[in-house]
Amino acid sequence: MSEIFSGMNKIALVTGATSGIGEATALLLAKNNFDVIITGRRNERLNQLSARLKAMQVRNLPLQFDIRQKNEVSNAMLQLPPEWRQIDLLVNNAGLAAGLEPLHENLISDWEQMIDTNIKGLLYITKIVATGMVERRSGQIINVSSIAGKEAYGKGAVYCATKHAVEALTKAMRIDFNPYGIKVGSVSPGAVETEFSIVRLKDANANQKVYAGYTPLKADDIADAILYMATRPAHVNIADIFVLPTAQANATVFHKKH
Ligand code: NDP
Ligand code: 8X3
């Protein structure tokens, strides 16, 4: 664990900060006066981001754990130094799609990885962080959902099911945490060029095919939406921001130039 100190900034915890949307969000929050706890499995990536934040004079704390492992999540959170325990903003971003085939051809191990990460992992960390927010009667939780949480598409049944679950959890959490003044919302992106498709298709060259012929969203576009949600006045809770590339009409219709 490494850290440097600044003033009395708010504290944000961003899961899945080693890549893509999570990394961009941690950097943008840091530039906007948040101290950041950054998490992920890849230690080298975490340390690189931590060093980058340190060079920006941003107080940060890298925490390495696999969000699917509830004991790893709780051990990491229980060992938080006291000055990092009052988390103001939780960005539940860690997640993935694995596979793109009709349901009967899916690997069961892919289903388990998506369910364990996108649903159960989100729940493990939320339970711990939200308990502190309830005690303090303040805080904000932003769940990274997807267009796949609003529509179901072929070859993506289980990924869509996990993001539909994120939508349901967001709505129910908003009710459960309403008496405590905790804001809960989601951001729901369409196609964003990150490592998402490389992971999903298990192909290092996937992005050249998936994003050919149109301009996808960048991770920074989603970080921007999250920053907007995180910086509204106390009486304003942005419940959902649904962001698409201009070339994307729904989960399957894209205007591509060939
Ligand atoms: P990336 O693959 O670039 O980033 C995924 C992040 O999740 C990584 O930091 C990864 O860290 C982390 N992660 C994955 N599994 C685990 C795990 N078991 N434990 C801890 N961390 C984990 O993809 P994106 O940035 O695109 O994805 C971020 C979120 O955005 C996901 O929830 C995704 O479903 C969602 N999304 C993405 C869209 C897109 O088109 N890209 C569109 C809509 C939503 P590490 O590997 O180091 O553990
Ligand atoms: C990622 C976007 O269209 O692959 O959530 O579901 S999509």
Give a verbal description of the structure.
The chain has 258 residues and is of the alpha/beta class. It has a single domain (10-188, 216-240), classed as 3-Layer(aba) Sandwich (Rossmann fold), CATH 3.40.50.720. The chain contains 8 helices and 9 strands. The chain has helices at 20-31, 43-55, 70-78, 108-136, 157-176, 196-201, 206-210, 219-230; strands at 10-14, 34-40, 60-64, 89-92, 139-144, 182-189, 192-193, 217-218, 240-243. The N and C termini lie far apart (48 Å). Bound molecules: NADPH dihydro-nicotinamide-adenine-dinucleotide phosphate and 2-hydroxyethylsulfonic acid. 2-hydroxyethylsulfonic acid (8X3) is lined by residues 146-148, 156, 191, 251.
Looking at CATH, the homologous superfamily is NAD(P)-binding Rossmann-like Domain
Please identify the top-level CATH class: Alpha Beta
Tell me the span between the first and last alpha carbons. Answer: 48 Å
CATH fold descriptor? Rossmann fold
Provide the structure class: alpha/beta
Helix content: 40-55%
Stretches with pLDDT under 50, minimum 5 residues: 1-6
Please provide the ordered H/E string of secondary-structure elements: EHEHEHEHEHEEHHEHE
Task: Describe the protein's topology.
Blueprint lengths: L9 E5 L5 H12 L2 E7 L2 H13 L4 E5 L5 H9 L10 E4 L15 H29 L2 E6 L12 H20 L5 E8 L2 E2 L2 H6 L4 H5 L6 E2 H12 L9 E4 L15
Parallel strand pairs: 1-2, 1-4, 2-3, 4-5, 5-6, 6-9, 7-8
Helix pairs in contact: 1-8, 3-4, 4-5
The structure holds NADPH dihydro-nicotinamide-adenine-dinucleotide phosphate and 2-hydroxyethylsulfonic acid.
